[in-house]
Amino acid sequence: MMGFNSGLDIGRSYYVATANPAPDHPALQGDVDADLVVVGGGCTGLSAALHAAERGLKVVLLEGGKIGWGASGRNGGQIIPGLRKGARGLVKLYGPERARALFDLALKARGLVLDLIERHAIDCDLRLTGHLAGAVNGSDLRDLEEEAECLASVMDFHDVEMLSAAQAREMVNTPYHGAMYEKLGGHMHPLNYTLGLARAAAAAGVTIHENSVALRLEREPSIRISTTKGSVRARHVVLAGDALLQGLEPRVNSRIMPVGNYIIATEPLDDTSDVIPSNAAVSDTRFVVNYYRLSADGRLLFGGGERYTPSPPADIAGFVRPHMEKTFPQLRGRRIDHAWGGLVSVTTSRLPDVGHYGEVYFAHGYSGKGVVLSTLSGKLLAEAITGDASRLDLFSTLRPMPFPGGTALRGPLYVLGMLWYAMRDRIKH
């Protein structure tokens, strides 16, 4: 696992600038034994560690850099119920009965996150103001209408509301053709949430080591993870490094593709009602999605732009600004105080890759829906490790196809595919 997400400026992020105080955890020194070793200090790994420790396991967690400095602590912070693939897509793939079981399980992610925030008093600017999906053209609006219909008829889920162009404009001051408003959505400060999970895990007895890059995974005679200065021998391992997981288990790596993701934070705005009067989390229907929300101190946090290679743009603020100003011309020229980015992982199906090879467990590939799904996935892994694999087995049936050409060719082929979709996106819009 990489020690840090080099060159992507998470240290300059709005989240790091406003992070709650958190302890440093020492690097692993020497050889230790545990029931479970977790690789990765984001929400997947911390949730797996916390829930396994609560079930009586001795847990050691290794983080290559700092807790929360991967995707978990620098994402858009949007709470969006469900999976990246919509209800209609799930029904088409799996039929109504299994689609509903998967949807219901994914929906539990929200409840779990809210419960953890309450139970462990995690201060993370939680706002349950809903999520608005804005249609950028007429055909996208019809797609959203059909999605809402499927949610109601197949999933028995009625917490969505279709909005006209005028109604959408009252909630977010940019011209959409209409929108689907998901009442159970919202947003939060993802780094402070992740740091809160780490505090809860440590209180439950988890030993956390930062700056401890996992270099090697051995399976025989038992699981052993080695770092530069020590090792952990355990009965089980959870690989939760997402896009930063490198080389420990090739079969796991082959199903995810790291892509660059970039966000800016403006200066505090005098009048946030001129931008998002509803304070909802917002995303649009472009293939290369724009997503944005207000921070607790009145900034616009805006993510957008196409980048299909891990190398970052030289100027992240300059890269994202045009997308923000096209969405909100009223913010043209406003100062950008923070700009950062990082790698997230996507899968061929846009559904998470969750499962295990013997005692090697893994969960990643959330494809933009990791804010709450990661916490749920971690809990499912802990359940399976401690004897109840029923919910993990349901989720693991989602297994996406490996990227064609394996790890060597997936990059070039993926870039070609993404460029095609992006071009089609521009023609449509």
From TrEMBL:
Its EC number is 1.4.3.-. Residues 33-78 form the Rhodanese domain. It comes from the Bacteria. GO terms for molecular function: oxidoreductase activity. Keywords: Oxidoreductase. GO terms for cellular component: cytoplasm. This is Gamma-glutamylputrescine oxidoreductase.
